[in-house]
Design brief:
The chain is mainly beta. It is built from one helix and 15 strands, in the order αβββββββββββββββ. It has a ten-stranded antiparallel beta barrel with strand order 1-4-5-9-10-11-12-13-14-15. Strands 7-8 form a two-stranded antiparallel sheet. The longest helix has 16 residues.
């Protein structure tokens, strides 16, 4: 993590030092309500009990917040850092006994569970098409995943954490279909034999000025891993609103 932070600081210092007349900083903030779709867990994969945090237990919806700081160079190149904390709480009881990670939980006892999926990303995107009506780009994202699932009940608690690096493909398609209005489709996604990840936003944008854009839309976060230590696949829904400030 320290090496990644140093590299991020260096990149932004370099860009700030050698910026030109076409360069522009931006801050993008996003908030709204997050809901759990499916969230299936089996830890360990081969010997744990599979259960659902959203069906066997009830997962509460909650507010969320995301922040992106970026830098555009000559309207072609975009570099950004991104922070997206996420934590969902679940509770209830399950009509079967559960072996989760290092603990065993009897059937029908009150349980509390927490699903955490914090994301930290560094993204470079090349905008290969940019005209009066369209902006299309593709790039690469280096993601640090800070994930955990915990279960608590019967005076016992077990938590499985996972911190790792995930490479993703970044994309952006923006269509200016009317005066001051555009449709935005953007996200990060990639699939592999061990798992997959998709974080995609579809939003309507209203351009109040050259420096301020408002947006509202729907975001989907889906994916997971099927490896020796963990089986976990989840679908998360976001109803969101936000703003982009350019300076």
């Amino acid at each position: 993590m320290k090496i990644i932070k140093k590299n991020i600081y260096f990149v932004f210092f370099f860009l700030f030092t050698f910026s030109n007349a076409y360069s522009q900083w931006f801050i993008d903030v996003e908030t709204g309500w997050v809901f759990s779709g499916y969230n299936n867990v089996r830890i360990p994969r081969d010997t744990g009990s599979q259960f659902s945090l959203s069906k066997d237990l009830k997962t509460d919806s909650s507010l969320f917040f995301r922040l992106r700081l970026g830098y555009e160079i000559s309207q072609k190149h975009t570099l950004s850092v991104f922070v997206a904390p996420l934590s969902l709480n679940a509770s209830g009881s399950v009509n079967k006994s559960i072996r989760f990670f290092e603990e065993y939980f009897p059937a029908e006892i009150p349980l509390k569970a927490v699903y955490r999926f914090n994301s930290y990303r560094l993204t470079y995107r090349y905008n290969f098409l940019r005209n009066e009506n369209w902006r299309i780009g593709i790039g690469l994202t280096a993601k640090i995943r800070d994930a955990a699932v915990s279960v608590e009940g019967n005076n016992k608690k077990s938590e499985k954490t996972n911190v790792g690096f995930v490479p993703l493909i970044n994309f952006l398609i923006e269509w200016d279909f009317a005066k001051n209005l555009s449709l935005l489709l953007t996200g990060d996604a990639l699939a592999a034999p061990q798992g997959r990840a998709e974080d995609v936003l579809l939003a309507l944008q209203f351009h109040l000025s050259d420096n301020l854009t408002l947006k509202a839309g729907y975001r989907i976060l889906e994916g997971g891993a099927n490896v020796e230590e963990v089986y976990n696949f989840a679908l998360i829904h976001f109803v969101c609103a936000g703003a982009t400030f350019r300076f």
